[in-house]
Amino acid sequence: MNLTYDTVKESAYYLQQSGFGVPTVGIVLGTGLGNMVEKISNPVSVPYSSIPYFPESTVEFHKGSLIFGQVGDTNVVIMQGRFHYYEGFTMQQITFPIRVMKELGIKYLFLSNAAGGMNPAFRKGDLVIVEDHINLLPDNPLRGLSDPLFGQRFVDMSQPYDAELMNMLDTATSNEHTPLQRGTYISVMGPNLETKAEYRWLRSTGADMVGMSTVPEVIVANQVGIKCVAVSVITDECDPENLQPINISEIIEIAGKSDKILSQLFEDVIKQLSKN
């Protein structure tokens, strides 16, 4: 795909013609995280394969649809499955949906991901607000984009995640009696998981959890002026002194159990946004 602003507008126009209204909130669902879809009323679902210029997810756990609807009184659009660098996509393909959602009208972006917990205080099933991130991906979604219609080139990342949205999640957590932790997420290329030595090094950088997504989307969201919040579901414990072989089925199961809680928290915050 040759990314131009016209391709973004064409995709957005197609979705509008397919029944999409003007969303306020965009939501990106990570691996094993799909319960939020059940909270949408009046859903309009469009498969990625029919949207002009959209990639198609190759991850078997991702449904591959863009869904418009309402959460309470708020219009939302949900990515039911995201794209990853390890699938072979370019960074601009990975983040293309964020630009399309911005063109549709979103002001807020809620992201979720499944992550390995390197902080020894984290346990399987924990929910962690991403307070900051470290980018170890080998490319940048802003590279080569000089057209000012995409936003400024030198994007400030001093606060990539919105403090007010994080505080709103904390408040929702208190209401639901569900403890949330905070941490720094580090994004790597994948798709293999890390060795013991790599976990030791990644932890030494100041990261609390590791995954293969989220950061590219957040970079583009900051470029185009969308406020972001992200939550990691800890699906495996990455203790290099007691490292166990991964079990993908267990990871999906853990993500699914925590997803019900996370989806309720997202719903609570989205409904609160409509009152502000």
CATH superfamily: Nucleoside phosphorylase domain
**Strand and helix order:** HEEEEHEEHEHEHEH
Mean pLDDT: 93
What is the domain tally?
Answer: 1
Largest sheet: 5 strands, mixed, barrel
Report the helical percentage: 25-40%
CATH architecture: 3-Layer(aba) Sandwich
Shape: globular
Write down the CATH topology.
Rossmann fold
Radius of gyration: 18 Å
Indicate the low-confidence ranges by residue numbers: none
Can you put this structure into words, describing what you see?
With 276 residues, the protein is an alpha/beta fold. It has a single domain, classed as Nucleoside phosphorylase domain (Rossmann fold), CATH 3.40.50.1580. It contains 6 helices and 9 strands; from the N terminus they run H-E-E-E-E-H-E-E-H-E-H-E-H-E-H. The chain has helices at 5-17, 91-104, 163-176, 196-204, 215-224, 248-273, and strands spanning 25-29, 41-47, 65-71, 74-80, 108-117, 127-135, 181-187, 209-211, 227-237. The protein has a 5-stranded mixed barrel with strand order 5-8-7-6-9. Helix 3 (163-176) crosses helix 6 (248-273). The chain is globular, with a radius of gyration of 18 Å. The mean pLDDT is 93.
